[in-house]
Amino acid sequence: MFPTVSHFIEYLLGIQVPLPFNTFGVFVALAFIGGYWAFTKEFKRKEALGVIHAIKKTITIGKPASTIEIASNAIFGFLIGYKLVYALLNYKLFVSDAQTVLLSTKGNILGGLFFAGLFAYWDYQEKNKVKLDKPKVVEVTQHPHELMGNLIVWAAVWGFLGAKIFDNLEHWDSFVADPINSLLSFSGLTFYGGLICGGAAVLYIARKNGIKVLHMLDIGGPGMMLAYSIGRIGCHMSGDGDWGIPNLNPKPVSWLPDWLWAYSYPNNVANEGAPIPGCVGKFCNELVQPAYPTPLYEVIVCFILFLILWKLRDRIKLPGMMFGIYLMMNGVERFFIELIRVNTKYNVAGIQFTQAELISCLMFLAGLLLVLYSVRNKEKLANY
User: Fold this and answer.
1) Could you say which of 8, 86, 183, 279 would form a disulfide bridge with 108 (CB–CB 3.0 to 4.6 Å)?
2) Which residues cross the membrane (predicted)?
């Protein structure tokens, strides 16, 4: 396993390059890039079809930088410099424990003040370059795909919060034992929490910019499936604890690689299992019994599902149907993977289930209802 990018480089090249990047975080970033690409493609395609439209906005140009703008840039610059300079001056600590460095109150005051001044001056100079003696109001055209930068930020912030909230609800005992670390830790993220909260934020921004809910949902279906597939690569490569139950069964076919059937996740970032003999460092554990590599299964299955959705997008005409199919696919995939995945189980009236199983069932039902709604209201939705 490769808990950090440095471990991966050492594995490939045999050299140690100390970098403060964890593998899971890199793949989360790649997942957002993949989602950005798919969303943008769909925005442009649907605008070309006349399904969604550009909107006119009025903006004022030629204004000098306001006091509030300069102050906000200075504050942002201070935070960047406060942490960046401290991290560079304490690089070994930053490499070994980036989370502590970033989330602690420790920083460098002089670095913060320097970057505060730099950011404030930069904003002042940039606004001065286009300053007019008399600012004027102009009308501009905003195409739907130009919203992607704003949507990504909202999805990232609210998605992370939702993922943390749902994860702490799922692991309530751990949260009660150490609430501060549970809330601030970059590990422990529940996909469905991120999907629900991040998705709600995206719908809010889209609605404010004239994009109807069903069209926005349809645009997001393929991109979210692709992003999930990419993100799960990070879960597998880092060994973040999303593996399956122990698997001591013999391989069904001899040609199947051992790591695709049962894997012990050596050097996993979750530090689960028993110590590895002779290993020195922070990540030196591996599972006592090999487990189903469920993140890898989801990478493969969800990428295939993305390809299916991508192929269907030109054929589906009814608003809401694409997202309904996505919900059904995602629900079925996650429900069955939960059967061999390690997770907290709840017991209600003698029935045991995990949080993900419950949500996946609800997602499948919601998707089915959305597909039925689209079919039964096709005349009403024809001009939606």
Assistant:
1) 86
2) 20-39, 70-89, 109-126, 147-166, 186-206, 295-312, 318-337, 358-375
